[in-house]
């Protein structure tokens, strides 16, 4: 199960994904994402970005090839083990998947409750997570009262509250204006600075180019390494 | 404003994250005792939350509760009736005695002697000897045929020994006793009017079987009703289930609130059924006592015993839980993030 290089957070080894309809969303994708590395995943819509992220969460399973996350071979993971994989991976969605029948606090506390933290422990961590996204005063509010950018930050707080070693984001700035987008990206980079591996799927090329960092480009299911722009972390 | 406020606290969070990072992959490591207590706490929380949720919407919940209650009341009422009939038939067992008619012309001394011998037989509780003359006196006093009897040249009635077997003597033993009695020289015929008792017993057996059949059918109805209600509850919470699965909720975690909801449907339905049975009993008890009195019997209708009521309640809870389980296992798999 464990692979040799413990410095690797995510490894894709010639991964292909064919959906039942016959469409091949990914073909022979291989790459490594190291611990504490920050990378963007770009490409036209329908290029397979979401599929690639879903494979890491086991929301989909690879048709061919192998996916490793934190040393786990996902091909060999039994369905009963999937929840424990997902606790290692924080995910942020474009539509942020918040629950509007409960407060901001309860939304963020959900992963901790599931993982079996005591309410006192969970309280401390929830406040720390809300603090890190700048929403500490909004615990008791309902997410529906918040602006789009604030909702997205609640989603991020929920993704990081359990301190996962891997953070994935699917178009996290899709609905936001450029200024808010930059703010959200800054947040992600701060998590990278404390050792979290971050992979962000986005089609916001302008933002990606401005921020630098490693770039994985998907084109009709095929992966290319992008140029590393000066100032980026990847060498 | 938030930019200013955020910076220092973010640093704080960073520090915490670094602490975490230094412990490597141990992010999930929570002591097993702590985890167990959190698990227990979550059970309590979910139990309370689901009950509150049901009570918050009392009209919709009441519908399901009443269906469960009525489905349980029917077999419960039959059970109560059967229970009462059994004690009734038990009382009649006492009159299941055997009349041993002696040969005509048997004298009183011989008759008494035989009665004493029979009295010592195993399977005999009591004997009573009635000689022909006192039998005739009795008949004369009770039948209203005195005039006709006066015309008869001699006493037409035989002497008789009434033999009382002990209560609950097994049928085979009873038959053996009858055989033994038939073997005495002095005995003419042995008469045992047990046929109607046997018929009553057969009817009781049939009723018991009927209750089982009815009970099983109605239990299936409860499963379906609770299952369907839970299916609707699942449909109303699809988003939540998806998110929970996404952030690492196990199937057991997702199932838990629905199983508790089923348990509550069963439990409250069971309590309501109990209440309905008590109402039934209260309504019937007076008329039944009146009827019994007209027949000169002290029979009173007994309510369902506490033990039976507990069994009913337990069955209701198990059925509610099973209905929820059935529904959840069918529909939860379809909801994947």
Chart the SSEs and their pairings:
The complex is a heterodimer of chains A (235) and B (337).
Chain A: E1 8-18, E2 24-34, E3 38-42, H1 49-57, E4 64-69, E5 72-73, H2 82-86, E6 89-93, H3 104-115, H4 119-132, H5 148-160, E7 166-170, H6 178-193, E8 197-201, H7 205-211, E9 214-219, E10 222-225
Parallel strand pairs in A: 3-8, 3-9, 6-7, 7-8
Antiparallel strand pairs in A: 1-2, 1-4, 4-5, 9-10
Helix pairs in contact in A: 3-4, 3-5, 4-5
Chain B: H1 2-22, H2 32-56, H3 58-93, E1 98-102, H4 108-119, E2 126-130, H5 132-143, H6 146-151, E3 160-164, H7 171-182, E4 187-192, H8 195-236, H9 238-246, H10 251-294, H11 306-331
Antiparallel strand pairs in B: 1-3, 1-4, 2-3
Describe the protein's architecture and organization.
The complex is a heterodimer of chains A (235) and B (337). Chain A is of the alpha/beta class and 235 residues long. Helix content of chain A is 32%, strand content 26%. Chain A has helices at residues 49-57, 82-86, 104-115, 119-132, 148-160, 178-193, 205-211, and strands spanning 8-18, 24-34, 38-42, 64-69, 72-73, 89-93, 166-170, 197-201, 214-219, 222-225. Chain A is globular and about 45 Å long. By secondary structure, chain B is α+β, with helices and mostly antiparallel strands. Chain B has helices at residues 2-22, 32-56, 58-93, 108-119, 132-143, 146-151, 171-182, 195-236, 238-246, 251-294, 306-331, and strands at 98-102, 126-130, 160-164, 187-192. In chain B, helix 2 crosses helix 10, helix 8 runs antiparallel to helix 10 and helix 10 packs antiparallel against helix 11 (306-331). At the A-B interface, helix 2, helix 3, helix 4 and helix 6 of A face helix 1, helix 2 and helix 9 of B.
């Amino acid at each position: 199960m464990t692979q040799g290089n413990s410095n690797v957070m995510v490894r894709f080894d010639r991964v292909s994904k064919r959906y039942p309809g016959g469409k091949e969303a990914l073909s022979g994708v291989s790459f490594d994402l190291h611990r504490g590395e920050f990378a963007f995943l770009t490409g036209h819509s329908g290029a397979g970005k979401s599929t690639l992220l879903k494979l890491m969460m086991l929301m989909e399973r690879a048709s061919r090839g192998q996916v490793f996350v934190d040393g786990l071979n996902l091909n060999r993971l039994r369905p009963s083990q999937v929840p424990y994989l997902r606790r290692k991976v924080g995910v942020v969605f474009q539509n942020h998947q918040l629950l509007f029948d409960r407060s901001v606090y309860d939304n963020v506390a959900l992963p901790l409750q599931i993982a079996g933290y005591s309410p006192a422990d969970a309280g401390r961590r929830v406040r720390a997570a809300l603090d890190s996204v700048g929403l500490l005063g909004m615990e008791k509010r309902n997410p529906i009262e918040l602006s789009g950018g604030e909702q997205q930050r609640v989603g991020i707080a929920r993704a990081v509250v359990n301190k996962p070693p891997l953070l994935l984001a699917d178009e996290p700035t899709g609905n936001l204006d450029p200024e808010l987008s930059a703010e959200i990206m800054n947040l992600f980079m701060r998590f990278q600075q404390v050792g979290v591996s971050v992979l962000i799927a986005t089609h916001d090329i302008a933002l990606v180019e401005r921020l630098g960092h490693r770039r994985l480009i998907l084109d009709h299911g095929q992966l290319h390494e992008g140029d590393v722009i000066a100032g980026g972390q990847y060498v | 404003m938030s930019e200013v406020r955020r910076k220092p606290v973010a640093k704080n969070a960073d520090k915490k994250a670094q602490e975490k990072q230094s412990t490597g992959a141990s992010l999930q490591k929570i002591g097993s005792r702590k985890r167990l207590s959190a698990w227990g706490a979550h059970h309590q929380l979910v139990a309370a939350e689901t009950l509150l949720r049901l009570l918050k919407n009392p009209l919709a919940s009441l519908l399901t509760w009443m269906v469960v209650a009525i489905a349980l009341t029917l077999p419960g009422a039959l059970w109560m009736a059967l229970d009462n009939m059994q004690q009734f038939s038990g009382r009649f067992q006492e009159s299941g005695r055997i009349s041993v008619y002696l040969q005509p012309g048997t004298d009183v001394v011989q008759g008494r002697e035989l009665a004493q011998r029979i009295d010592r037989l195993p399977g005999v509780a009591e004997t009573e000897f009635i000689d022909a003359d006192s039998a005739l006196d009795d008949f004369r006093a009770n039948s209203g045929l005195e005039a006709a009897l006066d015309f008869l040249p001699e006493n037409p009635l035989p002497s008789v020994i009434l033999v009382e077997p002990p209560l609950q003597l097994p049928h085979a033993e009873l038959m053996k006793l009858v055989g033994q009695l038939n073997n005495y020289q002095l005995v003419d015929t042995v008469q045992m009017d047990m046929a109607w008792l046997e018929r009553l017993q057969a009817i009781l057996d049939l009723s018991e079987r009927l209750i089982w059949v009815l009970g099983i059918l109605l239990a299936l109805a409860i499963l379906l009703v609770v299952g369907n209600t839970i299916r609707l509850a699942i449909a109303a919470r699809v988003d939540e289930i998806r998110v929970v699965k996404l952030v690492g909720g196990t199937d057991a975690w997702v199932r838990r609130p629905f199983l508790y909801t089923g348990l509550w449907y069963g439990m409250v339905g069971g309590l309501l059924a109990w209440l309905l049975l008590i109402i039934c009993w209260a309504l019937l008890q007076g008329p039944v006592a009146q009827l019994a009195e007209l027949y000169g019997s002290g029979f009173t209708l007994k309510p369902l015993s506490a033990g039976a009521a507990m069994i009913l309640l337990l069955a209701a809870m198990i059925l509610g839980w099973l209905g929820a389980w059935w529904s959840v296992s069918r529909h939860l798999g379809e909801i994947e993030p």
